[in-house]
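Hi there, hope your week has been kind to you so far. Do you reckon you could talk me through the fold, stretch by stretch? I've dropped the whole record in just underneath, so have a look:
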Amino acid sequence: MDPDISAEIISSPTMTPGSVDPGVTASPAPNDGNVGKKSLKNAKNKPRSLYASKSEGCAPSRLAGNFGGKRPANDNSEQQIAKKSKLGEYGPFRDQYSASLKIYYRPSEYDLAQICEKVDLKFTKMGYEFSTKIEINQITPTMSPSVVHKTKEDEFKGFNCFSLFLTGTEENTPIVRDAINKYIYNNFKTFGKVMGIDFSELNYETPLIKKTIFSRFTTPIHFEIMCQWFECRIAIYDRGIWIKYGNWNEEEFYLPTFLIESDYGKFNPILKLKN
């Protein structure tokens, strides 16, 4: 993860980073025949936003062996993050509730095409073909990567994963990075609260805004904003801990999910998990 980010260290079972199998071939997910139709249907019927209202905001959860659950009423983690953010330090929330199974929704052609349009890329079959390499149907806190796609692009770490997810190649990484940072630059006043920070109170001279919009690599702020803009879920596996961004509590809603391994400063798309 970002070396400038300080986050509470939480004990969890030791898990080894994912290995790479260049010859791996993934069978299509069981719901391949329906996922595109499902996303089209829900695109019409689901609420305008699946996330907390802009007045409340939402924040990612740092997992110590669990998914889901609401924070207790006396949990002051949001205030702690807001306080750290003023010092230039920001990090994700921690969840403290029992483990639960989470369904993994692989992005459909429709999902990828919609996101490509937002970041000024033309959708091609290469992006969907890359997604078919993903052999994941569910995710639990005890799982860890067994197969990852090792990224090669070193200038814009993290953004290169989404170039792969969307287009099947890292060549479009600069376009993805510029589009996301431009979106944040043009719209941050409308975000409401993100990770405990009220973006409506920030301005272009705020250090956090400057750091985010000029960043060459993805930060937690990027991941959270991307979840809202792309209408997706993101989970980062970082040294034995899953850090999740977006809405993981509303499983009745279909949301495409992107799983990424953080490997000491580099990010790699996850293709397969193991217990």
User: Anything to note?
Assistant: The first helix runs from residue 32 to 45. The mean pLDDT is 73. The longest strand covers residues 266-274. The radius of gyration is 17 Å.
